[in-house]
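Q: Could you fold this chain for me?
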Amino acid sequence: MAITVSTLRQFTEAQGNSWRALASALEAASPEPDDLAATVAEFASAQGQMWLALAQEAERDLPVPERATTGQVEVLVVPGRRQRQVLEMPELATEEGMTAKEIAAATTFGYNNIYTLLNLLEQRGFLERRADIWPRRWRLASRFRSAHSVYARLASWLQAGEWTTSSDISVAMRGDTAAAAEIGRVAATSATFPHPERILLDGGRINPRWRHGPDGGIQRCRELLEQQGVRFAGGIADRTQRVLWDELRRRDAEHQDGGAGV
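A: Sure. Below is the predicted structure, expressed as structure tokens.
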């Protein structure tokens, strides 16, 4: 198995934190340690600083992202609030789509006005109309629906005890962070997104707007992650358990024909 730069960074950071923890334990063991204990504590502290410096060096050496082998996935960027209210509905990202009546009932638009907006979005290439079913149903254009499936596929490679960010998924997929906001929204709203609790903010914090199901909320998200083995300190997930974009991309290439994570 190839060792990525992010794996090396996580290893060195874990080593640094372990040495620093040892130094703190030795210093706390006795308010007046003997010469041997003081020497060992000083050595452990120095080792911790050295390993953490190596971790920072490894992070700086992360390669510049290139376009992912999955191809450039188009990001859904809609300027108007009224248009976003429709296009951000998770049901439109499915193959089945929604009827005009269903869309009107789920938004603030009246039934008489919704057809005008749907036709406009279709003309602009955001929506497509299913011609094989009646009553007529609309769904996101195929290029946007395929993006949602890529988001979910990359997230599925995460294992229990790991976490990542929407930025990491975006970079793994596109080579940039342009899709990060869209991925975060999909993870928060799609009922089929795999383990949305594993998608955190860049610093390792849980998104304060995180909701998933009737028992959703920050505390529930943390409970789910801790049950899976993710460690928290001061509300921040352990950075050594973060899966960075290069590792996500490596797993995606390795498992295109294999199974997903658990």
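A (continued): The chain has three domains: 5-60, 81-142, 143-254.
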